[in-house]
Every structure is written in structure tokens, then in C-alpha cells.
Design a protein that fits this description.
By secondary structure, the chain is an alpha/beta fold. 25% of the residues lie in helices and 16% in strands. The radius of gyration is 23 Å and the shape is globular. The structure holds 1-deoxynojirimycin.
């Protein structure tokens, strides 16, 4: 089992070798003093990201929006919401990101718009509107939705009855997020133009929101009874979407400079995700969300990696790895709050074969905030993982009083400033891991093979030519022996112990290590 290969002697593209860092703009940094993060805030904290060593920033939506779903309900794809700034602020941010040698990806939301988007307002205005067919309207009886699909977040029907024109419209998410009809050529062209608008402005690529949903069976048939009441986001997977993705890819390919798209293909199975790479003519990358709902367990992780590499095959399809994002409890929270596990998970995430996606704040070892009912904002119950990042150890943590959500636990000790002072901190561990990837083609893009390991430990080698690293992750809370049969040096230890010294053959409780073959001091 080795996984996809980068042919020797070729320079891998940035989206394969780099590490992507997701910025949730509301929660990153505030420059305006309104308690909500913004573009100038992000720009003011780029030093943190350069120092950390990330390669690519992905910004969750920053477009004009009524914010029914925190910006995933877009009312103007080609303007910035005043909450976050304006187009000149965006241009300044993009220029500064590029000046620092980093890349910028935007979120692109192709499945739906806001109900306040002029396209939907037009569509809704009358049955004969030129844009009527831009959305999915169906006849019916006001008491009986056209099919049995349920909407994400409300749990009610995925249909809303429009009194004025006496038809239903489809929304797989909130009623404020009507689904676009990608079967309509004008919709395809308009959404392609949105991509071109930002590509011309210089962005390096996009994260495409629930992109597996854009193709719809024109009959919009009922889900089979066993799927009724389940999350519809996981159940749409149609051939027509691949044709649409080829059209989208062709737009990216019109532009020079290696633009790329990572798709949120929320199908939770590597075998179902693999076809979304096409024959190198659909998505450059597709999210693999299987680990988001799995346990902290060596056997689980080994099988996910093996299943992923088997499904994607030895060709061009390149895996991705995600532990946290703005839709799920942070992994430290999911893994029981343990700092040792959060540290070991960082070693795992940043040494697996594929492109890692970090979620802002995981480099601080953050857990979810506890958000009291009177401060909850999100209709999907996802506020905890969206809490503001603590920058400083003082009471304000670098924010004005009362930011839009409360801070995560232990915000002073886990603030960026406090951790930067402590070379043994989680923050410094992430920095060492990112530097190690940059210094080692094996870690960045090498092959992967499982290595023998006792129960509760996942061990593997990464290799490119002569460059080799051995990674071992102890998922248990007890020390475990791991004899190697060859001398090695500890390159990185999740507990910051013994780095640079000879490998002793023993992993501490919950410890993960990156080993460099060779005697003490070997650097590869
Ligand atoms: C997935 C996004 O990540 C999530 O935040 C959003 O609510 C839905 N798609 C709808 O756009």
C-alpha cells in the first residue's frame, strides 16, 4: 500500500505539497472593533501564519450575505460583506498573502444562493420571470411537499411554498438558501463567471461548498424509505454532477498559474469520493470527511488510510486530511479534551499521505467554546467550534469586549502570545511539523506504507528516493515499546522530549514521533 506518487524529479503543485489553513473570518481577528473578525484583521495577523509556516489560506465566505447561514447564503458573489470589509481590503489582503509566498483560496458556494440574491428575487417574482428556471420550482398542493427530502438544519421539508406564485422551491439547507438549478445553461454560465471574477482578481483557487449536490435528478424522486429522515447532504451522488465538474474545471484551466479547487464532497466514503477527481479533469482535491466521525483509535486510522489509498489508487487522485472545520466539534473536543491526543493528532494529520487542512485555532490546541443558550447564533448548532481565536493572554485576548461568541476554554494559557513564549507548546509543535514537511519530500509528498507496530500504535514510513521518515503514533494512555531494528533519531516528539537524540525504542503515553533513520543527530 503506497498511495499516489509524485514522479521523481517533478515539482509537485502547491495544492499537493502544501498545507492549507482554514480561516473562519468571523473568528480570526477583528480590526473594526465590532467584535466580529474581518479582512483587515486577517491581514494584521499574517505574521502568525508566516511564522507558523502554512502555505495556503482558505477563507470561509466573505461575500455579501444576510448571514442566515453565516455567509453560506450569498446575496452578491462579487462583493464583500461590509461586516468583513470591501473589495480594496480584499485586494490588500491578497497582495500581502502573495508577498509572503502564500496562496489564497476562497469559498465558492455553487449549490444555493441567499433568498435575497437578485437572481432568486427575480426568479420568485413571477412564473414567467426570465430567471424562473434558475431555481427548482415545482407544482403541488400547499400541504404536500413535492418529495420526501428534508432540509439540513431545520429537519423540516426541503421545500418552501411560495404563496405569490403558488409553487414550491427546493432548498437542501435553510429556506433562506434556495438551490440553484444547474441544468439551466444560464446558471452554469453565471456561476462560471463568478469563478472568473475572482480568478482574474488573482485568487489561487476555491473550496467548493457541497459541490456533490449541484447535479439533480430532474424528476427529484423520493429518497428510498430507509433514507427518509437522514441527512440529505450525504445522499446525493449523481453522474450529471461529473459533467458539471468538468465544465467548472475547464474554467479554472482557462487561467495561468496552477489554480485549483478542493471540493466538499460530503459523501463520507473514500470509494464514493474517488470519482470526483475524474480523469484529472474534475476536482483537484476532494475532502475526505471520514475521520471527522471516527474514534481516536489506531485500527480505525489504519483502515481509513488504507481504504483511502486503495480507493484513490496509484494515479493522480491525491488524498486530503481534515480533523477539524467550522461545521464539526474540534478534534480535541471530540477526542475527550486531552492535550496529549491533540498533539499526537497533529503529528498524524501532518504526516499522512495527502494534503492536510488545518482549521484556525487547532495550532493552539483549542477546544470548543461552551456557548450559553442566549449567545447561540447558528441554526446548525455549530457555534462551539467557531469561537474567536485568543491572540493574547490578557482578558480581551486581542478582541474588543464581548466578541460575537465567547472564547474557548483556557483562552489565556492557550493564546497565541502565551504559546509563542513556550517552545514546548502545541503551537511550537505545529510549527516544527510544518518545517519538517518543508524539509522532507518524503513527509510532504512521499509514498506511505504501514510498519509493524504493537496494538494501539499506528506506525508507517514515508519515502521519496533516499529520503525516509518513520512515524509512530501511540493511541493508548500507556507507554509502549517500539523497537525499530535500525538506528534512528527523534526528529519530532509530540511531547517535545528527546528531539535530536537517539530513538530509545519507547513511546510515552499518547506520544507520537517522527523518526529520521540514522544515528543520533541525523537530519536526513
Ligand atoms: C457546508 C458548509 O461548510 C456549511 O457551513 C454550510 O452550512 C453548508 N455547506 C451550506 O452551505
Amino acid at each position: 500500500m503506497t498511495g499516489p506518487r509524485v514522479p521523481p524529479g517533478t515539482e509537485p503543485p502547491w495544492w499537493r505539497s502544501g498545507v492549507v489553513y482554514q480561516v473562519y473570518p468571523r473568528s480570526f481577528a477583528d480590526s473594526s472593533g465590532d467584535g466580529v473578525g474581518d479582512l483587515e484583521g486577517i491581514r494584521s495577523r499574517l505574521d502568525h501564519l508566516s511564522w507558523l509556516g502554512v502555505d495556503v489560506l482558505w477563507l470561509s465566505p466573505i461575500y455579501r450575505s444576510p448571514m442566515a447561514d453565516a455567509g453560506y447564503d450569498i446575496a452578491d458573489h462579487c462583493d464583500i460583506d461590509p461586516l468583513f470589509g470591501d473589495l480594496p481590503a480584499f485586494d490588500r489582503l491578497l497582495a500581502d498573502v502573495h508577498d509572503r509566498g502564500m496562496r489564497l483560496m476562497l469559498d465558492w458556494v455553487p449549490n444555493h444562493t441567499s433568498d435575497q440574491h437578485p437572481w432568486f428575487r427575480d426568479s420568485r417574482a413571477s412564473r414567467s420571470s426570465p430567471r424562473r428556471n434558475w431555481y427548482l420550482w415545482r407544482d403541488g398542493d400547499p400541504g404536500t411537499p413535492p418529495n420526501n427530502w428534508l432540509a439540513q438544519f431545520t429537519g423540516g421539508p426541503a421545500w418552501t411554498w411560495d404563496e405569490r406564485t403558488a409553487q414550491w422551491y427546493l432548498h437542501l439547507f435553510l429556506p433562506e438558501q434556495p438551490d440553484l438549478n444547474w441544468a439551466e445553461p444560464a446558471v452554469r454560465e453565471a456561476m462560471h463567471e463568478v469563478l472568473r471574477f475572482w480568478l482574474r482578481r488573482g485568487v489561487d483557487g476555491f473550496r467548493a461548498d457541497v459541490v456533490h449536490l449541484i447535479g439533480k435528478d430532474p424528476d427529484l424522486p423520493d429518497h428510498p424509505p430507509e433514507l427518509v429522515g437522514t441527512n440529505v447532504v450525504h445522499t446525493h451522488d449523481l453522474p450529471v454532477t461529473h459533467e458539471l465538474l468538468r465544465g467548472i474545471r475547464a474554467v479554472l484551466d482557462e487561467f495561468p498559474g496552477d489554480r485549483a479547487m478542493v471540493g466538499e464532497v460530503n459523501l463520507r466514503s473514500p470509494a464514493l469520493i474517488a470519482p470526483y477527481y475524474g480523469a484529472g479533469d474534475e476536482l483537484h482535491l476532494a475532502f475526505n470527511f471520514v475521520p471527522l466521525s471516527g474514534p481516536w483509535d489506531a485500527g480505525f486510522w489504519r483502515s481509513v488510510v488504507e481504504e483511502t489509498l486503495a480507493a484513490l489508487g496509484p494515479g493522480e487522485a491525491w488524498p486530503t486530511w481534515v480533523l477539524s472545520n467550522h461545521d464539526n466539534p474540534r478534534h480535541r473536543t471530540r477526542y475527550g479534551g486531552s492535550e496529549a491526543r491533540a498533539r499526537a493528532a497533529a503529528v498524524l494529520l501532518l504526516t499522512l499521505p495527502g494534503t492536510p487542512f488545518l482549521y484556525a485555532g487547532e495550532e493552539l490546541g483549542l477546544e470548543d467554546a461552551v456557548v450559553p443558550p442566549d449567545r447561540q447564533v447558528d441554526p446548525g448548532g455549530r457555534d462551539g467550534c467557531r469561537a474567536p481565536l485568543p491572540w493574547t493572554a490578557d482578558a480581551g485576548h486581542g478582541w474588543p469586549p464581548e466578541p460575537w461568541l465567547p472564547f474557548p476554554p483556557d483562552a489565556a494559557a492557550r493564546s497565541a502570545a502565551a504559546q509563542r513564549e513556550d517552545p514546548t507548546s502545541v503551537l511550537h509543535l505545529y510549527r516544527r511539523l510544518l518545517a519538517a514537511r518543508r524539509g522532507s519530500p518524503a513527509l510532504a509528498t512521499g509514498t506511505w506504507a504501514a510498519a509493524p507496530a504493537p496494538d494501539g500504535v499506528l506506525a508507517y514510513t514515508r519515502q521519496t528516493g533516499d529520503d525516509r521518515r518513520i512515524v509512530a503514533v501511540n493511541f493508548t494512555d500507556a507507554p509502549v515499546g517500539l523497537p525499530l531494528g535500525e538506528p534512528a533519531t527523534v526528529g519530532i516528539s509530540s511531547s517535545a522530549r528527546g528531539e535530536g537524540g537517539a530513538w530509545t525504542g519507547s513511546l510515552g503515553p499518547g506520544e507520537a514521533v517522527v523518526l529520521v533513520p540514522g544515528g543520533a543527530g541525523a537530519t536526513g
